[in-house]
Write a structure and sequence with these properties.
Blueprint (H helix, E strand, L loop, with lengths): L2 H10 L3 E3 L14 H8 L12 E2 L5 E2 L8 E2 L16 E2 L2 E2 L16 E7 L2 E6 L33 E6 L15 E5 L4 E3 L9 H4 L7 E3 L5 E3 L16 E5 L4 E3 L19 E8 L2 E9 L16
Parallel strand pairs: 1-7, 3-4, 11-13, 15-17
Antiparallel strand pairs: 2-6, 5-6, 7-8, 8-9, 10-11, 10-14, 12-13, 14-15, 16-17
Amino acid sequence: MTLAALRTAFLLAVPILAGCESMPALDADSTTVGDAALAQLSSGAATSSLASLPVDDGRFTTGAPRKTWVYSCQSFPSGSGSQSLPWVSGQTWNSKEKVEVRGTVGWTRSLTIVRRGTQRAISGNGLPGHQTGTFPISPSDPAYAYDQNPNAIALQSVSYSIPANPAVAAAPSCLNMGPIGIMLTGAQLFNAFDAQGRDAAVHELLDSCWGHPQQQGAYHYHTFSACMGDSVTGHSKLLGYALDGFGIYGPRGQDGTVLWSNDLDECHGHAHVIAWNGKRVTMYHYHFTYDFPYSLGCYRGSP
């Protein structure tokens, strides 16, 4: 998606927000995922490239959390059953060459975030405040050759009550399939796997905002998307909340350097001073990264 197209997408998608907390505006100056990352690669990330990311099918554990893996509540069959994909070469894949689902479908986001005592109540319609591709994927779309996703994006009833001041649990918890967080775009976040335990970013065909619907029509992400509207300098913005209450931020750390999975703990986060509930506090939080597992590796708090 070009910068002009992305800017138009944000203008056409009209957000609706009620409640006591403000929501960061979607950033009209965001570029594509690949362009944004390549522009910010630094010394800590020099050995990684968006043109040569590892394919991490089956990179899960069910016994205990493990850094750069997913601590999963379920196991998956061995073997990925991978088809031949032109953006995959051996055990690496090129995120800049991956085919995207075409389309420019507009949606009206509804998202309410309210603090009520010790809880943060989040409700909405599950629709993103940005344009999406056309789903089901049309047979005339080049993406159809690799993924015949028959699901249509549909209105959802999203309702969560999560801790407003989450605490680190005595032990991390495994990640469920389905929603693990809610993003400020209005759409939900799933973990890094598809239903077969494959690296979803590699195998599932996504639109230009790196999202798609599942069987019930819930539009969701498995990875960071530039359509989430992260800032382009300094520490990344708060982009959403995990179901244990901790914040999920974009891929840049304290000094604005792009983070990678090895820079974070086994749950894909760390602690330092951030803005939280209107104050500056030292607090644990998650980050997106451009490499697997892309967002959470486990819950650090209690979901």
